[in-house]
Amino acid sequence: ESVIVLPALGLQFETHRGYPPMPLFAHRRFVPLASLQDFIINEGLWGWNVRYYLAAIHYSQQDTLSLRVAYENLLPRFPVILEVYRGVHEMLNRHCS
């Protein structure tokens, strides 16, 4: 799974299934920069544990706010999430400045 920042365009979320040398399929979801409201670290409860996850808040085609969760299958630990969060914000801030 990956989050790709496309400067001046938006964010692309990718999930690849299969073995690395021969993936079976790739699923890509794109969030245009014009509809992106924020990229956040959120927390959710999983059993008795608190799990952190990355999400893009954006307007959907129906003009309602939606969450697009990054790494929804991997659910990496907080240090990894924080590093990705900082990198995405750095790239987005470079473009907006």
UniProtKB/TrEMBL annotation:
Segment forming the signal sequence: none
This protein's pathway: Glycolipid biosynthesis; glycosylphosphatidylinositol-anchor biosynthesis
Lineage top rank: taxon: Eukaryota
Cellular component, GO annotation: glycosylphosphatidylinositol-N-acetylglucosaminyltransferase (GPI-GnT) complex
Residue span(s) of domain Phosphatidylinositol N-acetylglucosaminyltransferase subunit H conserved: 2-63
InterPro entries per the UniProt record, alphabetical: PIG-H, PIGH-H_dom
Gene Ontology biological process: GPI anchor biosynthetic process
A Pfam entry, by short name: PIG-H
UniProt cross-references to PANTHER family, sorted A to Z: PHOSPHATIDYLINOSITOL N-ACETYLGLUCOSAMINYLTRANSFERASE SUBUNIT H (PTHR15231)
Protein family according to the UniProt entry: Belongs to the PIGH family.
Name of the protein: Phosphatidylinositol N-acetylglucosaminyltransferase subunit H conserved domain-containing protein
Originating organism: Postia placenta MAD-698-R-SB12
